[in-house]
Amino acid sequence: xxxxxxxxxxxxxxxxxxxxxxxxxxxxxxxxxxxxxxxxxxxxxxxxxxxxxxxxxxxxxxxxxxxxxxxxxxxxxxxxxxxxxxxxxxxxxxxxxxxxxxxxxxxxxxxxxxxxxxxxxxxxxxxxxxxxxxxxxxxxxxxxxxxxxxxxxx
Length: 154
Prior knowledge:
3 helices; coiled coil; single chain; MICA1 monooxygenase; oxidoreductase; 0% strand; 90% helix; membrane; mainly alpha; elongated
């Protein structure tokens, strides 16, 4: 087993583990966001009830509750933006994994000597190459989407 093949296999395992760890971290953060959403909803409901029920409260108190409610809405919007970014990252991870699998398949066909390749092998190689280009294009679209989103936030 040549050294370069072992190196490629090791790098593939390392990148797969990195993707797995990133996916776990993203999943944990999405769960945290979901819990925070629920907490913000409960706080918002309480503040809305206070604002509706306490008409005879001092104006300062109502202003304070309104400001708290607006702060909660802003916090929720920030979380929604973060959640959107994380969902894009999940899609990117899926495409990255798909690209690695296709790379491996393509490499196995390309390592085969041309004299030993059958017509089916050549067709399969072309199909994998086509799929690989599609995955790369999809990843490019996601990156452009993230860049446009980042620029619009500035």
